[in-house]
């Protein structure tokens, strides 16, 4: 019985070791990686104190939990520049994250350090331009009594940018920067009024589409002009 | 913690010194004769055990970012002709990383080095010898320990060269104590971005140490 328990423990240990080994992010021997870049806003002004994180295993999970591991963190200097020297991780899901939230969007540089060629052991993000975040508060109010259903949809710029690079060249198919996303809903007699908010980017256009009682959709377009903009609509 | 370790080592050395002096004092006439005859002998085999304190120089990022903690070496010297000797030594040196921004995301290193050396030893005064040696070709391996994550180690491999000078005090024919200084060049040639490459070529040290030498064979 004891021997059986011992064997079971040993087997479990070996299985765990094999599982963890399969998930390991090794480091190259005799190598150091230099990660650097410069962060500015849309007007070209440097962004200081932005958080820079170098991560591996981004988007992976292990035992149903996030497997992301942060290898290095730093902040941008007054002139918006940053650089870090680190051991060279060999990983398919390597990322450098630039986070200047809540004022600015979050940017991610992704590459595969296992299969891609990292020229001269250098990952240079170059100039990273971050758009400013802006919040749109909207109110939709019913004033007409002969409307049974009101369908609406906001179509707006997402406040995130993820760029994938293969051998240092941007992969457009995998990248998604400031993509338009939508937010929709249907109002009925039970809940005729609605107010909420979402975050998009300053200076971007928002499409507001609506349809009353199943009639053809009408579209309104407006620009986000302030960091906290308002939109009111009555039907 | 380092201070405590140094104090313990010093007490241990002092105890050994007193004990040896006591034994030597009881056989004084014989020892003097043995000592003289040993230094003049053609062939001898000496085993040495050394404790070192490495001081990294600021010639590289690794030197700037680390503090040497201690090192231990084992060596073998064969006096092949008169006072010329060939030897081999190997040991471990321990470094603590103070600034990970300069070297990468690891906290400490353990460097193993092994080399062959050539040297010459001569008698300065009675019971006291001076030795010099060079070890032009050796190998070194730095094992860098990472605090977090599943992979805890990474290695930097390279070559090592060393120049050493020591002052040796003979207690008797079989035992002596040497105070040594060595300058060590470790060429690790770590590949990195061109703009920082020159900071990752070499790791240089000043090594100060105490070495116990045991004569295990004498012709």
Alpha plus pi helix count of chain B: 4
Q: Helical element count of chain A?
A: 1
End-to-end Cα distance of chain A, whole Å, is 76 Å
Shape of chain B: elongated
Strand order across the largest sheet of chain A: 5-2-7-8-12-13
Low-confidence stretches of chain A: none
Low-confidence stretches of chain B: 13-39
Query: Outline of chain A, from the CA principal axes?
Result: globular
The number of strands of chain B is: 8
Q: Please report the distance between the alpha carbons of the first and last residues of chain B.
A: 44 Å
Sketch the topology of chain A as an H/E string, one letter per element: HEEEEEEEEEEEEEEEEEE
In words, what does this structure look like?
Chain A is mainly β and 235 residues long. Chain A has one helix spanning 2-22, and strands spanning 27-41, 51-56, 61-62, 65-66, 69-75, 81-89, 94-99, 106-111, 122-130, 133-141, 150-157, 160-166, 169-177, 180-187, 194-201, 205-212, 218-223, 228-234. A six-stranded mixed β-sheet of chain A has the order 5-2-7-8-12-13, with no helix packed on it. In chain A, strands 14-11-16-17 form a four-stranded antiparallel β-sheet, with no helix packed on it. Chain B is of the alpha+beta class. Chain B is built from four helices and eight strands; from the N terminus they run ααβαββαβββββ. Chain B starts with a helix and ends with a strand. The chains are: A mainly beta (235), B alpha+beta (219). Chain A binds chain B through residues 20, 23-34, 69, 71-72, 74, 84-87, 120-122, and chain B through 61, 101-106, 144, 146, 148-151, 154-158, 188-196, 200.
């Amino acid at each position: 019985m004891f021997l059986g328990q011992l064997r079971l423990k040993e087997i479990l240990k070996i299985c765990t070791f094999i599982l963890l080994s399969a998930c390991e992010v090794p480091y190259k021997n005799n190598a150091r990686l230099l990660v650097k870049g410069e962060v500015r806003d849309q007007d070209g002004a440097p962004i200081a104190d932005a958080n820079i994180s170098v991560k591996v295993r981004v988007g992976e999970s292990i035992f149903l939990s996030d497997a992301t591991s942060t290898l290095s963190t730093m902040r941008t200097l007054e002139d918006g520049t940053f650089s870090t020297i680190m051991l060279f991780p060999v990983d398919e899901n390597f990322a450098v994250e630039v986070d200047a939230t809540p004022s600015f969007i979050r940017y991610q540089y992704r590459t595969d350090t296992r299969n891609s060629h990292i020229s001269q052991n250098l990952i240079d993000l170059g100039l990273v331009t971050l758009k400013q975040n802006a919040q749109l508060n909207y109110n939709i109010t019913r004033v007409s009594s002969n409307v049974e259903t009101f369908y609406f949809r906001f179509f707006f710029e997402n406040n995130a940018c993820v760029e994938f690079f293969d051998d240092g060249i941007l992969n457009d198919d995998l990248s998604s920067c400031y993509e338009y996303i939508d937010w929709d809903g249907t109002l009925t007699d039970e809940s005729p009024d609605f107010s909420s908010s979402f975050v998009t980017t300053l200076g971007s256009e928002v499409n507001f589409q609506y349809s009353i009682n199943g009639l053809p959709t009408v579209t309104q377009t407006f620009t986000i002009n302030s960091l906290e903009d308002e939109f009111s609509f009555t039907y | 913690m380092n201070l405590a370790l140094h104090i313990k080592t010093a007490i241990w050395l002092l105890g050994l010194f007193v004990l040896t002096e006591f034994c030597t004092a009881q056989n004084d006439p014989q020892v003097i004769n043995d000592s003289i005859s040993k230094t003049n002998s053609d062939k001898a085999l000496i085993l040495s055990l050394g404790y070192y304190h490495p001081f990294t120089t600021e010639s590289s990022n690794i030197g700037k970012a680390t503090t040497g903690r201690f090192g231990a070496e084992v060596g073998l010297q064969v006096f092949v002709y008169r006072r010329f000797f060939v030897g081999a030594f190997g040991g471990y040196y321990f470094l603590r990383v103070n600034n990970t921004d300069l070297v990468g995301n690891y906290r400490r290193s353990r460097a193993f080095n092994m080399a062959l050396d050539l040297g010459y030893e001569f008698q300065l005064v009675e019971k006291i010898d001076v030795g010099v040696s060079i070890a032009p070709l050796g190998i070194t391996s730095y094992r860098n320990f990472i605090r977090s994550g599943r992979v805890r180690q990474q290695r930097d491999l390279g070559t090592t060269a060393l120049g050493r000078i020591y002052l040796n005090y003979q207690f008797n024919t079989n035992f002596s104590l040497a105070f040594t200084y060595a300058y060590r060049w470790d060429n690790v040639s770590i590949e990195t971005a061109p703009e920082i490459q020159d900071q990752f070529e070499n790791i240089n040290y000043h090594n100060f140490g105490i070495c116990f030498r045991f004569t295990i064979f004498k012709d």
